[in-house]
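Quick one, tokens below. Sequence please?
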């Protein structure tokens, strides 16, 4: 069975990573995860500040469902990453940039999990607990009752804003590599 997905600039793009490029699976995980995170960040802001009151509960339920899926998706992404070679830094990349990039990537994973797990805990403290994943099955509650609701809501919000800031740094770094460094870092993931 071939791992070929198609032709990209005369090269076969494979599912697996190579020492110089991210494979098709890593790209899929990256872009679908990025879309989910963008959606959750913007949707979270909208649903808590702009959604009309009668529409909030269905929006909270949607938000929780996508958060639960993001946890599973990110676990799968990390499992895949653990089986793959990670492409080498671009030629001439200073050591500090490589370390900063690694810290940024692991920081994104950490904030994804921390934000999602505090959201999961928060879901159990709602007046109407949000355990359903798109109505297909229920997640177990991490916390019950209203005692921790306000604290979890604050923590979840601070983590989400922090993740949003780290996402902006990630995007700015990719654009910097593309426009100023003119190396292949951005092209490896596109």
């Amino acid at each position: 069975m071939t791992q070929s997905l198609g032709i990209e600039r005369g090269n076969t793009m494979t599912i697996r990573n190579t020492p110089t490029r991210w494979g098709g699976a890593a790209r899929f995980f990256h872009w679908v995860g990025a879309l989910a995170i963008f959606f959750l960040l913007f949707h979270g802001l909208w649903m808590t500040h702009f959604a009309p009151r009668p529409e909030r509960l269905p929006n909270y339920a949607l938000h929780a469902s996508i958060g639960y899926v993001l946890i599973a998706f990110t676990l799968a992404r990390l499992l895949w990453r653990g089986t793959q070679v990670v492409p080498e830094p671009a030629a001439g990349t200073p050591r500090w940039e490589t370390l900063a990039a690694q810290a940024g990537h692991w920081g994104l994973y950490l904030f994804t999990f921390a934000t999602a797990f505090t959201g999961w805990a928060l879901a159990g403290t709602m007046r109407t607990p949000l355990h359903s994943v798109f109505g297909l099955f229920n997640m177990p509650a991490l916390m019950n009752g209203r005692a921790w609701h306000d604290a979890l809501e604050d923590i979840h919000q601070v983590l989400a804003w922090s993740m949003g800031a780290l996402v902006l740094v990630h995007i700015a770094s990719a654009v910097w590599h593309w426009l100023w460094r003119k190396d292949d870092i951005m092209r490896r993931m596109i």
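Helices lie at 24-49, 53-82, 95-123, 149-181, 185-189. Confidence is low (pLDDT under 50) at residues 1-10.
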